[in-house]
Amino acid sequence: MVKTITILGATGSIGTSTLDLIEREPDRFAVVALTANCDVARLAAAALRTNAKFAVVADESCLPELRAALAGTNIGCGGGRAAVLEAASMGADITMGAIVGCTGLEPVMAAIAGGKTVILANKEPLVSAGEVVLAAAAKSGATLLPADSEHNAIFQCFDAARPERVRRIILTCSGGPFREWSTEQMRSVTPEQAVAHPNWSMGAKISVDSATLFNKGLELIEAARLFPVPNDAIEIVIHPQSVIHSLVDYVDGSVLAQMGPPDMRVPIASCLAWPDRMATPMAPLDLVAIGRLDFTAPDPVRFPALKLTRDALNAGGARPAILNAANEIAVAAFLAREIGFLEIAAIVADTLEGYDPAAPATLEDVLVVDAEARRMARRYVGSRGGAARG
Ligand code: NAD
Ligand code: MG
């Protein structure tokens, strides 16, 4: 049975890994639509290789270039937000949500409305609009599958029929490139240092999040959305080897873990084939070569993101959306060298302190909170960045 698939964010790290897997099994997957922001060369090449029906650039100014690249083919071209939403609404059996940031929220919602399978790599929509996303999936009957490696690990270990028998969820965290750095050392971290992750190769935004540990904080909120356990039953442990991707602890003392090489193609393949399995090109895990697995407690003093995210989760309402929006702005400012590495968490804290709207109830409410939090975070970037330069 051929499954049709649309990839939102097809040119990024997750999108490329997804294409790699489905192109190995052309009898199993047929591409409907591929979207990108503006990477026309990569998008057009992927559309041609997979014989996609529709290729979309979110940045409309890139549409003429896309049209030129696909001239003389049967592949339709689109540009702008409406075209991304159209791609997400084409009824593919599987939609991979691999756009980065909360800008992926509306496309993911459009895919969910179709009532088919939606794979969520794009974690920010779940953080900002968890209730809204889950309610939409319950309404349409869409199946949500988590591709984030930790959540995919939990999904594979979690006995969904007996959630009350789960005692704890343990999220593993590599610790990022600055796991052993002092706060003073982190003060002068450059974007180049922050995006060089020791274990994983990823897009720039999530790489910075992995260095501040905001990624683990976002994942804490993501886990709370996806799995029916109390917030305080979700723990984080530092595990530098990134071999155990997360664990589920049951009341009888059994702890189930999912292990695998640190390559996103493993959790993505698990989603693409679910509930079946499919082969990936990864070599079997060599435990003897790995030799040892280490675990330590995270340090909330050097990594304030952990407390900020835990507090936002516990407070609920608009807090996770504000936190996420401020972090997106702060990370972009750090990558643009407008602020220092430590200012990322400071700007998130400033924004959470300065803005306390009512809990958003609808998608539109979330988008309003997201936009206002971004506006405020930009202002704090201006004052903190200015102070840092002065
Ligand atoms: P990336 O930056 O490599 O790719 C992002 C994709 O989104 C690209 O195709 C880009 O063209 C597209 N895009 C960017 N801005 C857009 C916009 N405004 N409108 C429409 N499309 C836009 O990012 P990534 O590392 O592949 O991460 C994608 C998502 O998956 C993120 O939410 C990330 O947190 C999550 N994730 C990534 C990894 C990983 O290993 N890379 C692991 C777990 C979760
Ligand atoms: Mg992860």
Describe the structure.
Helices cover 47% and strands 15% of the residues. Helix 2 links the parallel strand 2 (29-36) and strand 3 (54-57). By secondary structure, the chain is an alpha/beta fold. It has three domains: 3-147, NAD(P)-binding Rossmann-like Domain (Rossmann fold), CATH 3.40.50.720; 160-261 and 284-300, no CATH class; 316-390, Rna Polymerase Sigma Factor, Chain: A. Helix 6 (124-140) packs across helix 15 (319-335) and helix 11 runs parallel beside helix 14 (305-315). The strands form two sheets. A seven-stranded parallel β-sheet has the order 4-3-2-1-5-6-7, with helices on both faces. The chain has a four-stranded mixed β-sheet with strand order 9-8-10-11, with helices on one face. The protein has helices spanning 13-23, 40-50, 63-69, 81-88, 105-113, 124-140, 149-157, 183-186, 191-195, 204-212, 214-226, 265-273, 287-290, 305-315, 319-335, 343-354, 363-389, and strands spanning 3-8, 29-36, 54-57, 76-79, 94-97, 117-120, 143-146, 166-173, 234-238, 244-250, 255-259. Bound molecules: nicotinamide-adenine-dinucleotide (NAD) and magnesium ion.
